[in-house]
Design a protein that fits this description.
About 15% of the residues lie in helices and about 45% in strands. By secondary structure, the protein is mainly β. It has one domain: OB fold (Dihydrolipoamide Acetyltransferase, E2P). Strands 8-1-2-10-9 form a 5-stranded mixed beta sheet. Strands 3-6-7-5-4 form a 5-stranded mixed beta sheet. Strand 1 and strand 2 form a beta hairpin.
Length: about 140
């Protein structure tokens, strides 16, 4: 499995590459009133309107006071595309297998983790894009 590794706050996470459509520098995000705080707004992508999701807020991951996202990881399928705001895209790696994630993770985070790999001596939580994209929280239900 190929993994796109990125940073959120001071931690490393990854998405399986098969669910990632593209990686881009931030675009102009238009705020939309009355959305949950993790939905920062929408942006245009080749004629489509795509929601911009603050992944730190969605997963309740601590970060610096002022977000400094410098990349948008666009993921999804024909039915739904989402732009996940991340601080930095680090690498794409091949992972032979995933380890079990630590048992002491917050519930919201453990709900979306497929497992864990190690990259340059640091743990990387591999997120389940299907669960994220299909989550009731993201869909506003």
């Amino acid at each position: 499995m190929r993994i796109l590794i990125f940073s959120l706050g001071d931690e490393l996470y990854g998405f399986p590459l098969e669910g990632v459509l593209e990686v881009s520098r931030p675009r102009r995000i238009t705020p939309v009133p009355k959305l949950p705080s993790f939905l920062r707004g929408v942006f245009a992508l080749r004629g489509e309107v795509v929601p911009a999701v603050d992944l730190c807020l969605l997963l309740e991951i601590p970060r610096e006071a002022k977000p400094d996202e410098s990349w948008i990881v666009i993921a999804g399928d024909e039915e739904m595309k989402v732009g996940f705001l991340v601080r930095e895209v680090e690498d794409i790696v091949e992972a032979e297998e995933l380890r079990e994630p630590p048992a002491n993770l917050p519930r919201i985070l453990s709900e979306f983790l497929l497992g864990e790999i190690e990259w340059e001596g640091r743990p990387v939580g591999v997120l389940d894009l299907r669960k994220l994209l299909g989550s009731r929280r993201l869909r506003g239900e």
